[in-house]
């Protein structure tokens, strides 16, 4: 077993074993225990009391974080020529259609989000095997298949994220950077958790929010008291 570095020991000392922190406390603590030289992402993991194998208990949605993600999101818009100018003016990094479809078929996926129009989905369907496993396939539920591509681009650039529960019943996503102040991290976490609560399936029984953990890219997880969610 590898020895802990001095910084790792300092971080470990700041977390009280077995303690569940309030969201406010955790938002400051995640900054205090992160010693990376780069601006680490702040991640949240929420275990839900659902059975994701059942279609009526699937949890998937989008949320616009009040303070954004802190990340530079590379956006590709696959659209008709008449929508290209609006997409570019909205901040899309790549705009086009057939040339990018061919690039993707060749293995290019150097983007974070792909936005398209309903009329284009027929052409994109064949890319499912490439885009699906990477979480890049446009989907009407996530707002990435729309007639108003410019609006969709602006929302993504401003901090709109798409999330989906995994096979274990856990929703994992990044909600900011450690360079954010504690209040910004807390605000983003509150908005994300509030959105999850709104999406609670009617078929879900018992405790819905089972556990919440906050962490940074290379830090230990900080357990959050689910009851502190009541503050939201």
TrEMBL record:
Coiled coil: none annotated. Pfam families: Ribosomal_L1 (PF00687). It comes from the Bacteria. GO terms for molecular function: rRNA binding; structural constituent of ribosome; tRNA binding. The keyword tRNA-binding applies. PROSITE patterns: RIBOSOMAL_L1. GO terms for cellular component: large ribosomal subunit. Keywords: Repressor, Ribonucleoprotein, Ribosomal protein, RNA-binding, rRNA-binding, Translation regulation, tRNA-binding. One of its GO terms (biological process) is translation. HAMAP family: Ribosomal_uL1_B (MF_01318_B). Protein L1 is also a translational repressor protein, it controls the translation of the L11 operon by binding to its mRNA. Binds directly to 23S rRNA. The L1 stalk is quite mobile in the ribosome, and is involved in E site tRNA release. Part of the 50S ribosomal subunit. Belongs to the universal ribosomal protein uL1 family. This is Large ribosomal subunit protein uL1. It comes from Candidatus Bacteroides merdipullorum. The gene is rplA.
């Amino acid at each position: 077993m590898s020895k802990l570095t001095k910084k790792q020991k300092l971080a470990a000392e700041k977390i009280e074993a077995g303690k569940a922190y309030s969201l406010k406390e955790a938002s400051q603590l995640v900054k205090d225990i992160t010693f990376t030289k780069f601006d680490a992402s702040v991640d949240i993991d929420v275990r839900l009391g659902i059975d994701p194998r059942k279609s009526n208990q699937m949890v998937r949605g989008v949320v616009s974080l009040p303070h954004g993600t802190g990340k530079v999101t590379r956006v590709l818009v696959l659209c008709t020529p008449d929508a290209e100018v609006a997409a570019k003016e909205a901040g899309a990094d790549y705009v086009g259609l057939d040339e990018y479809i061919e690039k993707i078929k060749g293995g290019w996926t150097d983007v974070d989000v792909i936005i398209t129009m309903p009329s284009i989905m027929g052409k994109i369907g064949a890319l499912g095997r490439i885009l699906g496993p990477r979480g890049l396939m446009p989907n009407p539920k996530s707002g990435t298949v729309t007639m108003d591509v410019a609006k969709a681009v602006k929302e993504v650039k401003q901090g709109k994220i798409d999330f989906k529960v995994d096979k274990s019943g856990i929703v994992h996503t990044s909600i900011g950077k450690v360079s954010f102040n504690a209040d910004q991290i807390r605000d983003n976490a509150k908005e994300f958790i509030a959105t999850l609560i709104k999406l609670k399936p009617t078929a879900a029984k018992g405790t819905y929010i089972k556990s919440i953990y906050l962490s940074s890219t290379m830090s230990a997880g900080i357990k959050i008291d689910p009851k502190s969610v009541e503050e939201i």
